[in-house]
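User: I'm putting together notes for a lab meeting next week and I want to include a structural view of one of the chains we've been expressing. I don't have a solved structure, so I'd like a prediction I can at least talk through. The sequence is below, exactly as it appears in our construct file.
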Amino acid sequence: FDDISETPEAPSGKVDPVKLPPKKLDSLATPKKPATKESTPPVEPDNAPLKATEILTETDFEPDAESTKNEAEVTLTLAESFFKKKELEKCLSALQQFLDEANHADVNPDAVIKMIWMKGECELELQEFEQASKTLQGYFQDSINNQHPLYLDQLEQAISKFVDADQQRYAVHFLFTALNEFRQLHEFYKMDEIYTEIESAYHQKKDLPRLTQTYQNHLAIKKTIKDFKGQLDILDHLGKLLYDQGDDEGSRKCYEQRL
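Assistant: Thanks for the context. Below is the predicted structure for the 259-residue chain, given as structure tokens.
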């Protein structure tokens, strides 16, 4: 065995596994996935058309009752402010626009009544007498009737405004309406005053036949209230008027009665 040298064993190619110390875990949470860039919707240019999300109908553009009511209150307050400051054209414009466009069924009737009356007042102040007459006729026909507590008072106010402006010819409708009201109340002195203004209206209109008839009716009221001086004045006017119209006989009778 001395001649036998010891040779090392050839390596088998297998390596014993190396045991590493256990790794300390900081947390038990699942590792987060790397953040990805979120997708964003494309930006529309400023002038891009709007995209409708629902179908619109006519009712979508109609104001509701509450908004109309609020608009009426704002308009009335604004108009009153303009009227007090004598900015009459602005007042009239605000009232006209609301009255033309609004649905009055949704508005407090008292607010509408005030607006129409104020519109007539503005037109009178602006000397738009014909339009004021139309506005106020509509007011007394549609807004208030003769049962309204303010009816007769406002009727007299309207007449006074035309009389003060010496524009009775635009107030004939109101004058006859008031005349009928006072006749039913047996207010003969009021009727006497109204007849005087009707005579002025027909003088302005140069309507001689109606003026003649008015003088004759007025004469009866003068007799009822025993206004003798008033009777003499009317007979004088009536005699001249009949003479100018070629009624000599009627003129003569007036002067005979006057004597």
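A couple of points you could mention at the meeting. Confidence is low (pLDDT under 50) at residues 1-8. Residues 149 and 155 are 11 Å apart (CA to CA).

User: Perfect, that's what I needed.
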